[in-house]
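User: Fold this; tokens only.

Assistant: Input:
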Amino acid sequence: MEEKYKLFEALDDVSSIFSEVNDEWTAACFEDNFSDFASFAHSIQFSVLQAFDYLQRLSELCFRLMLYAEKTNSSTEIWHEIARKNFDAKKLCIFAWYLIERGLQPDVACEDRKVGLIGSRIYISLCCLSGAQAFNIFNDYLFQRALDQLRLIRGLLSSGHLSITNNRVDIVQNTKSKNKKPFAVNNSRVKQTVFEQLTLEDGTELRYMLCDVLDSLFVFLNRDLLSSAQQCLISLAVFLQQLMQLDFSEKTSLLQCKRLSDFQRLRGFSDRSFALMHRFLDNRHAVSGVVYGRVVMPRLLFWTFENTVLPTNAHPPKLMTTYKEAMLNFIRLRIEKNSEEEIFTILLVLQNVCFRCPDRSDYRAKVASSVIEVLAYLPPKHIRDFANFLLLIGANSKVAVRGFVIEIAVPFVKQCGHILEVSCKKENRTYDCEQMHEEDMSSGKEISMEVDGAEEDDDCNRQKVRKKEKGKKAISNNLVRKIGLYNAILVFVLRSCNDKSPMVRTRALMQIAILLHDENIRSRLLNLSKTPMYVYCCEDEDAKKQRDDPILLRTITTRSLDARVSTRRAAIIALESLFSTLSESQQAEFLTVFQQHCRDPSLLVRKQAAESLSRLLLSFGANTNMLDKVWLTSVLPLINDREQSVVQLASKLVLETLILPALEDTTPFVWRILEAVEQEVNHRRLLLRSLLHQAKEGELTECAIESLLKKCDDLKNVNIVWMLLNFLSNVFKIDGSQAVRFWYTLNGSDESNVVGYVAEVIARCADRISEASRNQLIENFSTKLTEFGISEGHIAHVYYAFARLCNGIGDDSAGAKQMLEFNRNLMDKSLKILNNIIFHPISGSGEDLLTQENDKTAKLLVRIINSLGEAVQYSPILLSTNPKVFDIMQLIMASDVIQQQLTQIGTLCIAVSSVRPSTAAHCSDMKGFVKQQPQQTDVQQVPDCNSYEHCVSSAGFLQTSKSSNQPNNDMDGNQKASASENQECRTSQPTSHGLGPTFLRQHTVNMEVLTPAVRAQAVLAIGKMCLQDEKLAKKCVPVLSRQLLVNSNHLVRSNIVSVICDLCKRYTLLVDRHSAIVASCLKDPSTLVRKQTLMLLTHLIKEQFVRWAGQIMYRFVSTILDENKEVREYAEMCLIDVLLVQFPNMFVNHFLECVFYFNSVTHSLWSATTNAMEDDTERQDLKCSLSGFRLKNARMRLYRFMIKTFNDENKFMIGMRIGQEVYSAIVDGELNIYDRRVKALLEDCYEVLFLCFFVFKLSDIDLFLRLMHKTSNISLYRKF
């Protein structure tokens, strides 16, 4: 009874309180629920507050009240004893209220704050006595005011300063705060609030006083007083949350305190906050939902302390993660108590988290991880309940909810899959799915609002939503009963891949990719084709019929064609994860998906496809070469991508996939891929660009040179090693001594590319080679070149190396004279050999010998012609000093036509059989391309050359003196002028060069050696000569253009296209008049020529050497209709990915012009189209018309291709132009409506308008009609 005695002593020390408050004020305060503080403070003054030690007295009173409550626990006799001693407990409540309200005033000093804090302690300590509620001591409002005082003190301790009102006045400044409303009065002079810093002594004292109040609160929470005071529960939970923030850290204690002494030993406020939360969660308060909802859930959601989401550009800081870890440990401690009600509350919190998670990637991942960690502590029964909950809300109408379910489903399955496999019947579940749903609806109003999505006042809508939810629940239960929870969640994830929301589809595919890495789950997913995946899509009959199909694979491939970029990218990732499980035939089939997406319009998809293909190559390349060609034709070309980020990625992938493994010998199969690169010229160019880019980025260093030089002795990979050394010599310095030594071991006639590689390395090291070695090399190179011992594919490289060694590049170089003398000797020797090979006396005896060696002789001719072309390039002056070289090149190029001419006039003694096409490469740049087109030798269309005149005009060169003066009726005006000019040039005087009639009667031409490869090489030689002499170019371009139309060999035509396009860069105006003939090659019978022309014209148009107009435009667009799929795709790539990027209006500006041209309709506004029609009339071989109803589908394909590149504004503009230039022209009589071509044009225009406007709303069409009303007759549009 000592505690009671000391309690009454403490009451005696403050006994004046009970006499200073009369009974009337006591009754009034309780009746008004403590609402009139101003009147009470004005009337009553407490003398105890005037004492110098009043704080000590009041603190002693609080301590005795708390200690007595702790000791006696449930005794209520104290209330009667207090009354008998004239200590009215209600008056003590009023006194505490007075102190609390005084401390809560807005502009008071620190001493008043302390008074308010002691008042809160008095009231809470008084309420600690058993029976406080029964004796009307506990009051909801007064308790909340006490908590407000505690929150105020916590705020002072957190900020370190308190606000005091200054007496002076000032003008209110503008504020940017969104929460403050503008204050508009005549006089805006208000009191200004200033802030005073708390002193160290005041702060320390407030901390100790707050700790004392928390001690009383700890005892208070052992009483059953808050179970019916919902608002008090919320206020207390908010205070505990804020109290935790004062000194929270990773070292904060989360343990529960059962005794007051243990609680008092806790040092930190955060430690005390968790201890109070443990006591607060006792069953007697029934507040688990409040604590978890107000304190725990916001930390699991990574919300701010104001329960808001961080700004978009901000990410959750480390402190939030620390809070989350603390809350997870707190939940674990609470679950260990095995309170079924509290565990169910935790489950409801997790469900709320699923609804409330912000729809942001940084939040989703962190929140999902938190939920999964909590689920790890729950009993199996509740885990299965949560699985049913996921299936239920997976059909929610909110995209964010469905997206989070997908985010959490995969880690949930991976962690709790073994629990989901247990049969629900064996577990005797307490709550079935329906009960859980009903309790969710009643216990969590927030969840109900999220699921129903309807307003509370709208009963009709609520009933509909509930009915829909019940239907979804029944469907979900049906699926679970058939295939189990585990498979049901997998089915849900797979079905989400076809969700109507692109965001959900993307997340589902990403989760599928993660699941496929687990062998067990992958097996289940692949076996889903045997389960009723579409069991709750009863209306989807087609899906029911396709249940036995590979659902997973079909879903992924379907999504790879999705309209949304992120979904396509996710589908590629999923297909990469699935690739290892596919059969060999399926792998070959679906590699095309990666191949196509490497050319996707989106750079994200292109980059992902390249990365996936590279990883697949490294994973499966050792076992199969299936991926080699796909990777080389898909990833390697991305080095030419228009986006710099894609170029960087492609070059990095090339380095990591091919170069580094080859240098480190970690992946042997990369040598197989490098061998394929070395054999293909286009691959070599792309690899060179990749290496140069990586060297520029600093990722490739000179260490690579050292590693490669060590591998030079590897005869198996010697070509690859020297190819890489050749490429790297563009950037790094290489010791040329090893290249020189290796050069002497080579055979120049070897057709392997190693000769060219070593020659290029020597050329770049020429300045660093010693003089003695250089002289020896000059002698060696000179001998091999003059003896034509170098293979034709390497002559250019060796010639360049020779010129570098001689220092003879350029007219002003030191070795220019030496180089000129060498080239002159080479040319004289070459011409002599050419004359001996091509012309033989009729009575000669060596004919049989030459006939047997025709193949070797043809190869020699190719080398000689190639050497002559190089010599002319290094010494252009030789063209004027020795014109025979140009004449002999003309003869060789036109030999097939001359053969027919001479045969007809009887000057050739021996009839020659058909010319055999050569399989040899005609130039190094086209070597790889020709190898890809071996079938073209059988696709030649020989023109009709029966007449003598046609043969002369087709050849164009070496006309006899008699025929040179005769007009050629088969040539156009420009070609006639060129023919007349030929009379004055050296080529029009064949007799002066030994090729006159007398010579021809005494000699025969060895046509067997003039193979297509020889003629094709002669074309290139002529092109090199024309690049050095503009006069020659003027005379040759018309003839070369003619040869494009009449020459029967695709190798010759391909080289002519290359020559003309090169000349176009040097002499643009000269070639422009023949652009229609060049464009006609887009319809060439040879696929090689068509693709070569596409590539060259694309480059010329992009660099603006050729205009996008006329026949080039019409034929280029019509290439979309090519019969060869590869050509069609290449043409589309050139138009969309290259030209349209640089010229966005290239289709819009010429669309109607193309419509007129393809229908063969002339119009006064389209002069270019009219001129093109006239050209078509004169030259039927150039015609590219698609007129007539029979070709309507072809025209519509072209229209659709162009229209899909238009935006809405372009489509409206096209519609207006059709009205102005077609419909108005018909109304005005400029176009004959009875002409079948005009009818086809009109029908095409109707189709075009439909294609442009069928996706627009009616309001958009009305807007279009109003615009048209201002410009033309509206009647025709009304019909439309």
